[in-house]
Amino acid sequence: MIYSDKVIQHFKNPHNQGSIENADTVGEVGNPSCGDVMKIYLKIEDRIIKDVKFETLGCAAAIAVSSALTDMVKGKSIDEALEITRQQIIEDLGGLPEVKVHCSMLGIEALHEAIKKYEKKD
Amino acid sequence: MKKKIKENIYFDHSATTPVDQRVLKEMMPYFSEKYGNYSSLHGFGREAYFAVEKAREKIASTLDCSKDEVIFTSGSTESNNLALKGVIDSLKGKSAHIITTQIEHDAILVPCKQLEKKGVEVTYLPVGKNGVVDPKSVVNAIKDNTVLISIMYVNNELGSINPIQDIVRMAKKKNKDIIFHTDATQAVNFLSCSVKDLGVDMMSISGHKIYGPKGVGLLFIRKGIPITPLQAGGHQERSIRSGTLNVPGIVGLGKAIELAVKEMDKNNKKISKLRDYFIKGVLKNVPDIILNTDVDNSVSSHANFCFVGAEGESILLYLDAEGIAVSTGSACASGSLEPSHVLLAIGIEKEIAHSSIRFTFGKHNNKEEIDYALSVLPSAIRKLRTMNPLYNK
Catalytic annotation on B65? Predict the structure, then answer.
């Protein structure tokens, strides 16, 4: 199993890692017994994602996916963010090993969870 | 002090070892100069024949067995498959029960699962927290149709040592006809593997775990043990294992076993000193960890930890980025969904087992390398814990 250079770059220096204290919404998915948990924090103004941060427990793929996804959603509208597919994340990362493809779902699910909660509140 | 001392620091000797220069030197002529086929009658063949038989003799005297009880294979996976399936096949469908443990290598567990599908009964015995099987539990598991017991000598993940000699003695006391196999792949560097002392009927050994070449190993089969070959062909190895003999590999295996035994005390002393120093340093510098290796019941090379709150594959890759090679029992690294079956068997919870890292030291490691690892490990763990949404920072 070989990771792309892009995955390793994100893994070693993840973008947007941390938390947002007064986030407008937070999404958390995964299960520690499976070894993967991702939490995404969003700051939203006029339905635009102004800021985003993540915290992830997991392998290099899970961390790279978190980092790449948060880069992708920053500045996008909620509707645009919801359109991001796992395939786009995988492509952005220069591919993921076959056994790690499921990790790309973690990011999408966390994002959707956060937006779902936000829409309910609104 | 955090200065990179060299590009590659190897702490993964349970995965494989470098070929010892002295082993390589003995192997070299058998690639391009003395390339004959062991089975050929001419001079080239004789050259290969005598080289292989010299290695076999050396190995037999080291293992305390006779020459024709050593069958060369491609490594321990093949040896284990041959031992289990070969014995069961020889029973021609008679009711059979195998006893093994939950902490065996997949090269035992997967063949056992295959045999179960064919109607063979298999008992997978639990082990204690120290990764050691209780001999009494083996005896208690013996049934009327128990034909084979297979228990590893040293566990590859924890380094734990099973008391093979005691288990064999007690099991044979209950039923002397039971065939006893041990996978000694991880033991040869550290413990006596005299089959006479151990009392085993079959034993698997691999070249590349003992500073020998990859792709070669052996199965000791005591005279009189019934075994049906797995592969048919050119009748090599008394038809038990057909296939052209790997002459350079076998020559290397012979030299590697010779050196392992000759230098065992010296290596054990050196490696255990490094290992104990490393464990002390880790326990002092990294909070909230579990030492999975029971030092009093393990070989000198192993230090297996759980770094609670940090995922194993990520730790591995952080260390890799610093030039340090280790391995992990995390599911993420293996591509399966389950973490190490060995850690689960010693009672580690799944979510903790994902955080395991195995350091296995070898004869070429030194204190400088350990100090370097101790200087980079704490920050790697801290970084990953900071990133973990569930870890109490």
Answer: no
